[in-house]
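User: Could you check the structure of this?
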Amino acid sequence: MSRLPIFSCGRLLLHCAVAGLLWLFCATLAMAAPTPVPLSASARVPLSGHAQLLEDASRAMTLAQVRQRDTGWQQGPSDALNVGFSRSVWWVRVAVRNSTGQPLPVVFDLGSPLQDEVEWFLVRRSGELMATNRSGDRQPFHARGIDHRTPTLPALLPVGEPLELYLRLDSHDGLHEMLPLSVSGEARFYAQANLETLLLGLYHGALLALTLYNLFLYVSTRERAFAPYVAYLGAFLLWSFTFSGLGFQYFWPGSPNFNNAILAIAVGASISIFGFFAQAYIRAPEIQPPWCTRLMRVLSYINLLAVLPALFDHYTLAFALSIPASLLLLVVCSSSAVWAMVRGSREALVLCIAFAVLGISCAIYYLKLLHVLPSNGFSTWALQIGSCLEVLLLAFGLADSMNTLKAQKLEAERAAREAQAALTTRLDQQVRERTDELEQVNRRLGELAITDELTGAYNRRHFNDIFRDAVHGVARSDPWVLCMFDIDHFKAYNDHYGHQAGDEALRTIVHAVQQQLKRSGDRLFRLGGEEFGVLYTAASPEAARQFAAQLREAVVHSTLPHPTSPLGRVTASFGAIWWSGHGAAMPRVDDLYAAADRALYEAKQAGRDRVILRAFEAAAEPDTSGDCCGASRYDKLRANPA
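Assistant: Sure, the predicted structure tokens are below.
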């Protein structure tokens, strides 16, 4: 029994708490009617921060039903009306009051030319409808209250009476625009509209002139970067003209569906063509990996394909596909440009600056719409200023690139002319050089033909030619000497060390002897096996003997060990003849060779490692032999030495 009052009090408290929560919840749903905004003739008053929003998910509410609703209203944002993507109809209400002392003509401005459907209702508190209009870019342009690029509602406000403005906002496929709703006195509105039209005309005229100018440059220069730049300018111009509402106002006012489609197409085309332009302008295939270039091309094509739904009146789907592809393409393009800029590309530097200018201008424009930045001439026209600077910077970059290419071309032409002149003046020299090279090759081939392959000394065939010429020309030259030498006990050396060591010994001795042959007429020949011959000039027999002794000492100083030789080292025997050319007749070549061979034989008979020199006395019989040093005569002299 004692617990019952406590339980009853608890239930009472619970009911009170629930009732309080319900009251708070209902209080949040109910919102007082908006306070009237005072208006004057000279000011432009933003209304978004004073507006209230109501969502109509059923899309069937009438103005009367909306005016009777006290719940569900939301306070509008302080910057611009923005509900984003929504399939619902949204109602906007705002109260205004003429604070002047006389009737005030005003113009309510939606602030955006891109809202699909907007219905205006200006009503008294009593419910009397004072002004209405239905327009938007899904309605023909002539449906608007006045001839202006954005939907507007002109009205005459009575003195001091609060009025309510209702807007019904609808979307073709769910995409609502950001709406900076405002109201201005009629004179102020038209002055501002005329100024905007003038500035937009100058802006688009400058873009058109720049497009045509670069088109003419492309036709005249055929520079490949100009083609995508001209296409980019054209697509950007079309987008800007449509985005500002001037296209719908002046060119296709009776084609709202075309107006929506061309906007999506222009956006996708401008971004895609910018991707192709960036590749050509910074010469991406030349400075970056192939996969990066392929990625940029693929993203550019995806952007083009993303606008296809707009052709079938699916405006939102086109933007839903295009926005992520566009952002990814711009990220890749900017990264590629930064990568090229770091590596010293002037074109990439210009592209980065232009891209940064456009990005900053877009940020300023939208921050102004969100009231983060103050509204002034610069922030209002930031998008146009930034885009104009961007295309001018890119045009400057193209002109600079073209001038650079022109300078390179002129330099190449100058170098070509100089090269042609040099080629003309040096042609004979080059021919002579080629001839000299061929002669050197031929001489080298000739040397190979007359050189002993093992030792590098002249071979026997060349000895025959030189020796015969020396005999025939001795009367017109200095006395000469034929010195023949033979390596002592060379067979025993080969038997002891092997033929490979014997070949190396021959090369060593030839090198030692060649070091003593300083004069141009001195020649060393390998006559066969271990036998060699030296032709040189000497003024007297004594001079001839001294030089032969010098050659013998060179062999000795080669210090080749020879264990089977009595002297313990490699030595050579020298036999030489000296002939002055003053004989009774020209001697036989074979006789001269045989005389030198006899002197060599005498040196061997006398104990080897010595020099025997004889002065040759010519016989009366003239030389009529066609060859020299025949093997039969040599063998005969060996068998019967003198």
